[in-house]
């Protein structure tokens, strides 16, 4: 597998960065000179549900058009992959599709885009009900209505297929692994007395991997108190131990720093076709998460292990 392929961000998180218009421009201000700061809060990608709810209430009082409030709810739901939230606003979206006014839009281009997202949400709901035929029908309609969102929808399908496969995948925790300093260990050893292990697959040639090292260190410190051990798994093709040890020293890494065997057993079993990639594994070897480190789904998976886990502030 070549490095160009491995560098691709083939995740839903990356696709969400391409959502029509909203990310490419500042939200339009409503009539009456609504403060730009309020509009930015309304479309803040890092908002919690409560922060968004508070911003919507304030924006409503300030006279922000209802259409823009609905768009803010939609974008937040898509970013966080919150199917329950998206299902809750579905009736509002269906009404908006019939009354869409491009002049009032915060960035979404057309009524067909709204209709497309309606079909997309219905597809997610069908998938949750294990209705494969319904899922396929709604996703095809979503593609037809808004080809511009094809990458988002394709990534969703890929993610769901991977999750389906991972549900029946078990990792061999006793596989002998090398560390960057030449010692040997196993995932079972690393997970002793812990609730789970979170493995970050990386390589020195992967720019995004290296950029996320400070965030990885923060995750390790944050999750340690919740009984979850974080480990790095290097994928360099040449002199992996030397490269990994050099990076460990430069970055001040103090948690397990592992080397994937040259026959790439994890890459094959976990279908790792892009990095950075994070894998969350339970003490029984079951895969609890397989995706991008910045995908909101990671924190959803972690909260299932310990409801007290909260994503640290940036």
From TrEMBL:
Q: Give the subcellular location.
A: Cell envelope
For this record, the Gene Ontology CC terms, alphabetical, are: cell envelope
Coiled coil region boundaries: none
Q: Which GO terms describe its biological process?
A: cytochrome complex assembly
The leader peptide range reads 1-24
* Main location (coarse class): other
Gene3D superfamilies attached to this UniProt entry:
Glutaredoxin (3.40.30.10)
The lineage's top-level taxon is Bacteria
Q: Which InterPro entries match?
A: Redoxin, Thioredoxin-like_sf, Thioredoxin_CS, Thioredoxin_domain, Thioredoxin_ResA/DsbE_sf
What keywords sit in the KW lines?
Answer: Cytochrome c-type biogenesis, Redox-active center, Signal
Q: Does the keyword Signal apply?
A: yes
The family database entries (PANTHER family) matched by this protein are listed as: PROTEIN DIPZ, THIOL:DISULFIDE INTERCHANGE PROTEIN DSBE
What is the recorded name of this protein? Thioredoxin domain-containing protein
Taxonomy of origin reads:
Bacteria, Pseudomonadati, Verrucomicrobiota, Verrucomicrobiia, Verrucomicrobiales
């Amino acid at each position: 597998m070549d490095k160009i392929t491995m560098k691709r961000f083939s995740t839903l998180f990356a696709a969400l960065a391409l959502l029509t218009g909203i990310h490419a421009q500042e939200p339009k201000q409503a009539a009456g000179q609504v403060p730009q700061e309020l509009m930015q809060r309304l479309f803040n990608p890092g908002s919690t549900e409560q922060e968004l709810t508070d911003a919507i209430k304030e924006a409503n009082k300030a006279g922000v058009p209802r259409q823009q409030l609905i768009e803010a709810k939609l974008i937040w739901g898509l970013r966080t992959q919150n199917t329950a939230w998206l299902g809750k606003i579905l009736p509002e979206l269906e009404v908006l599709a019939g009354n869409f006014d491009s002049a009032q839009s915060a960035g979404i281009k057309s009524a067909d885009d709204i209709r497309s997202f309606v079909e997309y949400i219905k597809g997610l709901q069908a998938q949750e009900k294990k209705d494969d035929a319904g899922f396929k029908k709604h996703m095809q309609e979503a593609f037809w209505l808004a080809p511009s969102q094809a990458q988002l929808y394709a990534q969703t399908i890929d993610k769901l297929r991977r999750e389906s496969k991972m549900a029946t995948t078990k990792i061999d925790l006793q596989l002998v692994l090398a560390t960057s300093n030449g010692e040997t260990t196993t995932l079972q050893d690393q997970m002793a007395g812990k609730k789970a292990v979170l493995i970050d697959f990386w390589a020195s040639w992967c720019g995004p991997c290296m950029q996320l090292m400070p965030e990885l260190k923060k995750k390790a410190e944050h999750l340690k108190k919740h009984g979850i051990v974080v480990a790095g798994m290097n994928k360099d093709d040449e002199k992996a131990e030397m490269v990994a040890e050099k990076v460990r020293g430069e970055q001040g890494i103090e948690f397990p720093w592992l080397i994937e065997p040259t026959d790439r057993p994890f890459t094959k079993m976990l279908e790792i076709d892009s990095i950075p990639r994070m894998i969350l594994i339970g003490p029984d070897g079951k895969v609890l998460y397989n995706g991008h480190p910045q995908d909101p789904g990671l924190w959803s998976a972690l909260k299932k292990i310990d409801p007290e886990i909260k994503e640290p502030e940036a």
